[in-house]
Amino acid sequence: MIKTIKKTVKLKLVPLTKKDKNSLLSLLNDYTLMIRESLHIIIENDIRSRKRAHELCYRLLRRKYPHLHNKYVQEAYKRA
């Protein structure tokens, strides 16, 4: 079963500059990768709690994606 992930992002839409569009696409791509990595870690380690998911995923994802706000990292492993 495939689930749809929805996330709210606040930015100016009119006019959407090339820079804004690229930033948005980059954010969505990185967020998707973080969810996939988190899911892989969670399944591989048979994690059943958010606390344990946090312990295994948070530092790894923060090191890999230092340019993103910590809330995106937290949401990624929570959604996974």
Count of DSSP strands: 0
Q: Return the average pLDDT rounded to an integer.
A: 89
Helix/strand-derived class? mainly alpha
Helix fraction, binned, reads 55-70%
Principal-axis shape equals elongated
- Provide the β-strand percentage band: under 5%
Low-confidence stretches: none
Major sheet: size, sense and barrel closure?
A: none
In short:
The protein has about 80 residues and is an all-alpha fold.
How does this model look, in words?
The chain has one domain. Helix 1 (18-44) packs across helix 3 (70-79). It is 65% helix and 0% strand. It contains three helices and no strands. The longest helix is centred in the middle third of the chain and has 27 residues, at 18-44. The chain is elongated and about 45 Å long.
Question: Topology of this protein?
Answer:
Layout: H1 18-44, H2 50-64, H3 70-79
Helix pairs in contact: 1-2, 1-3, 2-3
Key descriptive features of the protein:
80 residues; mainly alpha; 0% strand
